[in-house]
Please model this.
Amino acid sequence: MTPDANYLDMDLLRFTTAGSVDDGKSTLIGRLLYDSKAIFEDQLEAVRRVSETRGDHEVDLALLTDGLKAEREQGITIDVAYRYFATPKRKFIIADTPGHIQYTRNMVTGASTANLAIILVDARHGVIEQTCRHAFIANLLRIQQVVLCVNKMDLVDYRQESFEEIVKSFSDFASRFDSIVNIEFIPISALNGDNVVHKSNNMPWYQGPSLLYHLEHVFIGSDANHVDARFPVQYVIRPQTQEFHDFRGYAGRVAGGVFKPGDEVKVLPSGFSTKVKEIVTADGALEEAFHPHSVTVTLEDDLDISRGDMIVKPNNPPEVGQDIEAMVCWFSEKPLAARGKYVLRHTSKEVKALVREVRYKVNINTLHKIEDDLELRLNDIGRISLRASSPLFYDSYKRNRLTGSFILIDEFTNETVATGMIV
Amino acid sequence: MLSYTLNHLDQLESEAIFVLREAAAQFEKPVLLFSGGKDSIVMTHLAKKAFWPAKLPFPLMHVDTGHNFPETIVYRDSLVSQMGAKLVVASVQESIDSGKAVEEKGPNASRNALQTITLLDAIEKHGFDACFGGARRDEEKARAKERFFSHRDEFGQWDPKNQRPELWNLFNGRKLPGEHFRVFPLSNWTEMDVWQYIKKEELDLPSLYFSHRRPVIRRAGVILAATEFITLQSGENPEELQIRFRTIGDATCTGAVESAAASLDEIIQEVAASRSTERGTRADDKRSETAMEDRKRQGYF
Model:
């Protein structure tokens, strides 16, 4: 990367990568990092050393992402690993999610903060069950941008028909996914570098961009909700100093909409109305704040507001209620207990919750509903209804990823056992 | 109309401030680990912003190996007094004197690993339940698997195979008595982001980061400052070189790079062109392929 006067104005794209075992995911990431010069010589040297000790024929680029001892010994990826690279246009954060162990848990975790998902397909095998699963999760987590990389094109002699066939079958299948706004199909060979960073000469029939070009230019501005004003109060700032004697600020990160000084606002759960006085930051007051700004808001009236409360606008308030319907993904070895009680964390609020019913589970390979086995086990996805011990201020996950999501925590082990997306 | 997006540095800043506030809200007695290195300087700056106009709601803690560059201590003390912050110094020398830690022997002896003992002791003594650290995932492969809120059991140990998933901006900081958390607000930053941010925010840094002449020795591919803490081996003769440090830690294992970069702009250019990671200069990471993971499991930073 060359230093660039524009560096201070680069934007940020977070993406997740999914593929089944041997689809060449690690090779693809290694290729992106290597060709964009985000891999350093000492890292490559270390990987080369390990590859040699193991007697590998080639340098195993997967070792760049699999850093833990157990991963190296067993040749597996245990956990989501985050990787970083930048081009003069954008900074990228990759959530690299392993394909086998705890696949759903890892994919869901990686997808929760991603703007874009790369799904890999082996050109020889086409769209398989795992491809459906990956697309289902991307859609469930509301990732609007999907890139289907048809990898190993070199092994099908770079034939256009092989690619077109996969494009067609994936398009047919994906048409039922309403969250995915755009799918880009790119024929690549991660091993040889075809269409990864540079356009390939081996596929003159392909008119589209290389993968990196697409990642650099794809529009990601529409992910956040800038319509419904939501400000979960995270922390109350009271300096109690001579200079700021009466200062009482509500710190938090805007979860939706735009806040400006003078805006009429309502505070939940009290329901009191007031106006925004100032949007305070250490660098001076802001004219407006929107997601993902972390700011401090002061109000015209002195109200009793604490962490877990939410500042909203009166004309489009969130839902307020204790009975929640949600899709959940189960993360724990211990299955969901019948009428299980858990700690529920939603925005900056923590309440108790009782799972009242599992309505159905989803077979994520076929997308069929399962209604005869309602026990949610590790990696299962299903729909539940639950009751919270006090009202939540929420939106559907489709409308707002931040006010529509929650996690469930085991009260005794403190383990995060599930994640939920409010329907 | 303005477009509702933030550039990458503003996004990273917002995320770090969110994490700092979240930890301050979820934990009773947090502490910010301060080494005098650039990452902890950036962290301190972010913490100041997160709670402005109030003061930091937690103290800073320096785990002091006693093998410091004097520049680091001068910088530390002036920053602390400027901010009106509280400083806790946890001393490795005291751990050694009281018999809790045993000094390594031999020419490559370092107090780096002993810091873990002193750190865990101080956490227990002061009852800290969360320690902010400046570690970044891009630094090292074991750190790439870290969480923002990273759980430590009652022995201070990290279990990388059994970490809590982190989704959206929901952080689970619940714990049992005796357990604590390490919190890493800079998880998503790269070395380049840190330097760009230092430039954007016009932060002062210890002079060690800028090019200067200094007597050094070369040992196992690492350029070490010839300080009083280093025992010269036969054949080692200090030579004076034009160097700077890419990371700052214990003087016995912090390696320098030959460099003429004397300003932030020059450093940024150098980092951009560099073909090795900043941890490549650290003797402590070179002890084995999984040196960082091994130390982290024990409770290291």
Observations:
- The first strand of chain B starts at residue 30 and ends at 33.
- DSSP finds eight helices and ten strands in chain B.
- Chain B has two domains: 8-194+290-298, 205-286.
